[in-house]
Specification:
This is Kynureninase. Its EC number is 3.7.1.3. Pathway: Amino-acid degradation; L-kynurenine degradation; L-alanine and anthranilate from L-kynurenine: step 1/1; Cofactor biosynthesis; NAD(+) biosynthesis; quinolinate from L-kynurenine: step 2/3. Keywords: Hydrolase, Pyridine nucleotide biosynthesis, Pyridoxal phosphate. The chain contains 13 helices and 13 strands. With 444 residues, it is an alpha/beta fold. The longest helix is centred in the C-terminal third of the chain and has 22 residues. The chain is globular. Bound molecules: pyridoxal-5'-phosphate and (2S)-2-amino-4-(2-amino-3-hydroxyphenyl)-4-oxobutanoic acid. (2S)-2-amino-4-(2-amino-3-hydroxyphenyl)-4-oxobutanoic acid binds next to loops.
Amino acid sequence: MSEIQVSETSEASEVSEASEKPVPGDALAGRAEKLDAADALAAVRERFVLDDVVYLDGNSLGALPAHVPDRVADVVRRQWGELRIRSWDESGWWTAPERIGDRIAPLVGAAPGRIVVGDSTSVNVFKALVAAVRMARETGGSGQGGEGGGGGDGGEGSARDEILVDATTFPTDGYIARSAARMTGCEVRPVAPAEVPGALSGRTAAVLLNHVDYRTGRLHDLPSLTAAVHAAGAYAVWDLCHSAGALPIGLDEHGVALAVGCTYKYLNGGPGSPAFLYVRQDLQERFDSPLPGWNSHAEPFGMRPEYEPAHGALRGRVGTPDILSLLALEASLEVWDGVPIEAVRAKSLALTDFFLECVAAYVPAGRVECVTPAEHGLRGSQIALRCPDAGPVMKRLIERGVVGDFRRPDVLRFGFTPLYVGFGDAERAARVLAEVLAEAPGEE
Ligand SMILES: Cc1ncc(COP(=O)(O)O)c(C=O)c1O
Ligand SMILES: Nc1c(O)cccc1C(=O)C[C@H](N)C(=O)O
């Protein structure tokens, strides 16, 4: 498939302007039809197994790419069933973690050789955070590129005994950070991402941040926060679970030191598909993993008692890779062939704008409150609507074929995966939401 072009005309800004005055339902349905007809990504939907449900939960579990079942069957029947042990070499099993990392790399703005795939996001948060603390202490801190030089307050011998953690983080990151802190003799301080620059000091070793907030869908400023953390001589670890595959990230461009992300949301790798770990090139030789398994040994089959780390991204490996899940992920990444991440971002903004416009037109004022920022630069690829009876409302929406999710205490979450969600889906979701809300009048 040839590369899909990003349109110069921003449909997103057009719908934002239009959103000021409510438009009748049939006009919105007509607009949705036109937008779908003009959508350069519309045909990508055919690469997925979908039914007539409006699936707005790809920010939790991405849909199944249609060719994956046969590919997984081949891995099981032929590679495992017939080739058996030979597949470690002949089917490329042994090198899959780096090979698949290189396939994800362009989607997150990384050159080849910087990403390894394996383990869960939680495990990779642990590896990255402990490695960040170790690196910060090793040099007195300097997240910035290049050799030596402790930036900011962090001189040789400074304590570097604090980890700042996004106060609104997805819980697993906070749990892991507190354990990593206990193990490294650090204290954890929860800080709202925007407050991070003011909270940095010569004590800061590492900062764990989410790129997009899982509940509100707010996009945090990765370039400026990374620069601030590095200028203070600490290392930022970014959790990209809700941005990888949803928007351009520019890891290399922005000098990000360490990043992790899952592959089962916008990368559609399947339930429990392995996560990825990015280590900036100039830090790879200093990456001191707290989980140095035999798969990251320089000579894994040397079976030596002493650990000698391998070079490059594969230093982030631990034990035997989860081959069935890895190869399902590798197959699913083929849906990205010819799809630029910029086109995905443009459509994501247009879709979320249009959904908000439909909600404003259909849902009585005051019944829901949007907690996702309206400003494009602050928005991920989901819309979160606060609603006092969000739990039962989402249950009814799902019964009526609109699948989003409920996040405690009161958030209706709608994830927009531009590879397979269309403008007609956005209009239908808002319309059904209004019907459900009309039947369930809320707390009043
Ligand atoms: C931001 C974020 N981090 C981490 C996770 C979970 O990580 P794991 O893959 O270890 O379950 C999720 C979702 O499950 C998430 O939204
Ligand atoms: N990882 C999940 C799972 O194993 C079961 C159910 C949901 C998930 C999720 O990914 C939740 C998701 N991270 C969230 O943002 O809420």
